[in-house]
Amino acid sequence: MRDFTIVAVSAGLGKPSSTRLLADRLGEATVTALKAQGAGAKVENIELRDLAHDVVNTMLTGFPSGAMPEVLEKVTGADGLIAVTPVFTTSYSGLFKSFVDVIDPESLTGMPVLLGATGGTARHSLALEYSMRPLFTYLHADLVTTSVFAATDDWAGEAGTVSPLPKRIERAGGELAARIAGARHQGPAGLYDNVPSFEDMLGR
Question: What CATH fold (topology level) applies to the domain 4-201?
Answer without folding.
Answer: Rossmann fold (3.40.50)
